[in-house]
Amino acid sequence: RCNEYGEWENAGPKYKKEFPITLRIAECEYTGHAIDAKIDHWNVPDNATEGETVTGWIKVDGDCYTPGQTTRGRVKFTVNGGTPEYSTVFTFDCFGETGEMPFSFVMPDYDVTLTAEIERCNEYGEWETAGPKYKKEYTITLVMYEEAFGRIDKEKTIPPYSRQKGDEIRISTTIKNIGGTKGEFQMYLFDDTTNELIEKEPCTGIPFTDKWICTWKDLSPGGEYERTLDTDWWPGAMPDHDWKLRIEVRKQTTPDVADDTYPFTCISVV
Predict the structure, then answer these.
(1) Model-level pTM?
(2) 137 and 164 share one domain
């Protein structure tokens, strides 16, 4: 208000309002026009076994015919409505340019529905679904092995990302019999480059000696077994370079052949 001195002054706190405005960070670049693409072809398996890494791709096709116009988007993948995964962002011209968008997930112990949806960038710089006609669903059926079959549970088995030279490496490893009959299994840790065996389980030390007795673990259908594979006795343990290792599960009836493998690299850090 204007006071008696002819100066502007605050009228008081009851005449004051504050309005917070949130900064919006653009997730994507709006192109100014609708999405013009379609899911044209796909490579999706019909079935998979429990613990199997399911891979495939969805082919997206640029579907407009306006000279000089491009269409931009991405594909959102979900399995049974779970946490989404996204393809890289594609930018296509409007005369049939295509691209294959890969996906990957680990098959659970039940049938799943894989959903692929094309998303576009709206005028607010946010990703949104392009609409029902840009959506496809695919059913993947769980299949069982009739005989005993070992699988490494890759969700419960998490190798270390990095270690320093000389460090011990320990991996809590879970295996499972996903077959239809009882079986006997062992888990192994190999140097993936030299194929040297570092450790296997289950093994039990003989008291008062440096010797070990290794046996086979009986697992009924659906049974699990957890044990820690480590480099306790391996000379030098973690080397001064990245180390490629491999976990295997084998069964007694075919001891020279792995039912499942899990290769990984432990990064060397200073």
Answers:
(1) 0.70
(2) no
